[in-house]
Structure formats: C-alpha cells, structure tokens
Model the fold of this input.
Amino acid sequence: MTRAHRSGHRTRWAAAVAVTALGAGTVRARRRLAALPVLDPAGPHDTARPPLTGWQLITAPGVVADEATLRAAVAHATREGLRVVDLIPAHLDAESVLGLLRLLDPAAHRTDRCAPGHGAGHALLVADDLHRRAGLDTEPPPQSVAGLIRLLRTLKEYAPDATGWAVAPGLRSPHPDPARRAEELRARGLPPALLSAAQLAGLALLVKCALSEPRWGAAAAALYWLQPAAVLSPARGLRPAGLARATASRPLRSLSAALRTLATPPAEQPRSAAPARHAAYIADLAAGTDRFFEPRRTDCPWCSAPDPVVRVRMPDLLQGKPGRFTLEECRHCGHVFQNPRLTPDGLDFYYRDFYEGLGGEGASLVLGRMTATYRDRAELLRPFTTPRAWLDVGTAGGHFCNVARGVWPDTRFDGLDMGEGVHEAERRGWIDTGYQGQFPELADRLAGRYDTVSMHHYLEHTRDPFAELDAAVKVLAPGGHLLIELPDPESRIARLLGRYWLPWFQPQHQHLMPAGNLKQALEARGFTVLAEQHGPAHQNNADFLGAVALAANGVVPDPLAPWATVRPTRARRAARSAIQAMAVPCYAAALAVDNLRTAVARATDGGNAYRLLARKELG
Ligand SMILES: [Zn+2]
Done:
C-alpha cells in the first residue's frame, strides 16, 4: 500500500467517525431539547393564579420578563416542587442553545444531586428561602450572563434535587455578546483556550475530509453545517432568532468565535490578582522547606520492624510547591509511609490552596463528578444493614453525603473534616451537622452516636491511622458499621508508573497500608470484616491519565502559581503552554488505556484502591 493510499484510508476513517459523532450529538441534543418544559403564559387564569410573593426573579442586563411569564414560571415551579428555575429565552440564538444542550441533560440533572447547574444564564426564578440560605440577600445581584451562569451553579448546590429548567416564550433578551464568550465558558468551569483550540482542530479536520473524501467527508461537513437546523427546526417552544442565517454561516461564525476566544486574555493572573497570597508564600519559603519535616524514623510506624527501604522519591507533582518527598516501605509488613514525615506546619503549607482557596473550584469539580462511585459506596451497606445515623469522616465538601442521601433518604448524615468546607456543606443541606476538627479529638463528644462511620480516602492523609481507628470504635454504637476506602499500595500499576502513580499523592499521603494490614488492625479492635472489594473500588483515570497530568505538570511547573520561586517570564509561560499542548494527544491515549484498565480491574477484582466494610462487635 502506498503512502497516499494509507493517508486516504485514514481520512475516510476520520470522516466516518466524524459523521457518527455528529449524528449522535444531533440525536442527543434533540432528545434533551424535547425534555425541556415550555412555559404557557396563557395558562391557568385568575382562580389558579399563584401568588408571586416568596419568589425572586434575577435577570441579566437587558433581559425583560412580563408578568404573565413570571406567573407561569411560579406556577411551573410550584407544580414541579422546584426552588430554582432557569428560564431559557425562546429566541436564544442557535449556538447558545446547542452549547447548553451539550452540557445540560434536563431529565437526568433534575434528579442527579451531584450534577452541575448549567443554564442559559438569562433569568433565574429563585425561592426566597433558598435565596437567603445561599447568602444572596447580602450580595449585589450578578451583572452579566456569566454572573448568572455562575450563580446557577451555586444555587444547584443548595437545591440539588429542586433545580429545573423551562423555555420561556415571553422572555425578551438581547443578542449574545461574542466578546464575552471566554468569560461565559470560564463561568461554566470550562477552559476557553483548550476548547477553542479543539474547535479549530475539528474545523480543520472537517475541511480536510470534505476535500479529500467525497462521500464520508462531504456527509460529515454537511451534517456539521446543518446541525442547528437539524436540532432546532421544528422545535417545540424554541424559536431561535435568525436560525436560517446562523445555519448558513455556521463554519465562518464558528471559526471567528474560536479565534476571538483564543485572543481574549485570561481573566486574572493569579499572582497580580493576589499579591498578598504570593507574599505569604514567599515569606514561608524564605526559611526553606527543611523545617517542614520531622527527623527521619528508622522503624515501621505500623509494626515497628526496623530498617524500612525507600520505595519512591518525588517532588510535589500536584501543585509544584518546593520540597522533596520520600515514601519508604516496611520490609516486614509492606506498610508504605512518608519518611521523613511532614510536621503539622508542613502539612498546613502543602495543603494550602488545594481543597480550598485557589484550588477549591478545581477540587470540587473533580469531587462533583464521582456520583457513580459515591452511590456504589452507599449501596455496599444494603445487604447488611439499614443505616440511620452516618458520620462521614474526611467529608471535605460533603459530596459523598449529598449523593448517599439519594440512596438512603431517611438517614441522618453528619460530616467531619479539618477544613472550612463542612460549614458550607451544612448550609447547602448536604450534611445535617458539620464538625470541623481532628477526629480523635472530637470522638469523646460523639461517643456511641452513630451506627455507620465512613472514611473514604481519608486514613492515608492522617498522621496516626491507629488513633483514627480507635476514634471510630468510640463513636460507633455496638454492631455499627465502618466503611473504609483507600489507595492500594500493592497495585501492580504503582510499580510500573513509579513516582507518576497519582495515588502516591505526595506530599499529602502519610500512610498507605496493604489491605491485609488494615484487616488485622480492624480485627484487633473487635471488628468483623464483612466485605472486601478491589475491582469496584478502582478509580478510573487515576492511573494513566493521572500519570500524564503529573508528568506534564512536573516538566514545567506553573510559573504563575503564587508559590512559584521563579519569575513568570514570557519564555517560562510559553514553555508551560507548549508542554500542556503537547500533552493533549497523550491525555487522549491515556484515557483509552485507562478505560481498558478499568474493565480489567473490574473483571479481575484488582485495581488502584480497595474498600473494606467491617462490623463492630455487639458486646
Ligand atoms: Zn511494618
């Protein structure tokens, strides 16, 4: 086969894949659109008119709702048991509708407590009590579509199963402002530059296919071109302004939107936006990082056997803060631990801006995408017990409890964590009571109060896992259940990937114990192990995708991070961007390998993590 033949073959395949993807996307968008309710402003009259008190309408500049629309929206919310409704203008332009339908699955997100709150961002109907609980009565209302998009994400967190969407034919709204596209994508938690680059690559591929592959290529290009009309006409409720024009000029508009978004400068440079943060880090680092470490120990903290050996050494590949970390392994029991370990001050330094502050939004985006895992953990109890009072230790923002509530609606969920997030989780109603502090210190106060305690990816972060297990014994009533999930240091992939195995998670993880060790420790405390899972606890994308992310981050750490000790020169920033761009195909490949790996992990009950369910003795 000649080179020209091979290339023609590849183009045909690419075109066929594009046709399939575009066709599936079109069908999906039509299905989602059909699931959007349409308000009927001419609906129930006089007698059935609900009162408008108790509701607030928040609109973007230039958006106007008449009274009939407002009444219809309140009637819809009351009928459907909603506390928030995102009102979508019927004349919303075609690209905005298509963009929204890529993110929003109205039928699924209505009941998925963890699904993000995506909306059109033009008008929000919000119940007064929710408005207050989310603290909005003390803040000025948002002044842009991006502001409303951001606000809806917050409100969905406060009303996880009472947020809805409706097309509002009576809502008048101005034309979208293309200059604000980058800002609006960021408000949705999406990276504008990466998306625009992908959009340009997609357009280039379509042009190449259309030119060199008459049948499949032309079909793909036509499908792309006509997609707005294929999705939106004739659509129930929506009548996008200028649909014919938008369809005709789609490739050109798409090209200009992508270029314009790429040319928009980033919203804020972390360093210039937060000089105080940068100054605080530089002051902390002035005395060096050695003071963050305790002396190296010469025995195993788990079994006291002498002379542990080095398992792996690495820098901070997560955030790129200065410092080097060593994990050692006990030759006798296989326990893996950070040695020398960080002092409490050191832990404070390296945790800062990870789960809260600068990294807060990213961390909560990741934690918010694990619904299936959370549900599996909650379901693990079902064959053994019906939980009534559940304490989730290391709950962070309470994401697990938010989903577990859907599985066990009559159970009381409390959360405990070192961070401020527990209070926010309590305000959102994801947990009933939040306790901020160290578990062993709070255990006396909570003694005997719970029939279930969970610790998901928590024990490995603690300084003394035995003290944590003792605390669990204390707060559990006799016969209570303890659910633990941990990374598995016996994973074979850990050996293969070395320092780039994400679950090493340095410098945060202090102890990584093999399942056998943990079972012994539980049995020594009077627990009976009821279930042990390896395959189902495997975390997808933590192995290969994680390794690519760590490696890309490690090559050129972010020079704009507030803890960066180098100047953010143009060259360093360009190098960082170049490496991130070069990593894109690696991410795609890693994603594919990870999916395969997850299938194997499930089939062989081996993976990068494990779960144990144990019951405390009745006596
Ligand atoms: Zn040991």
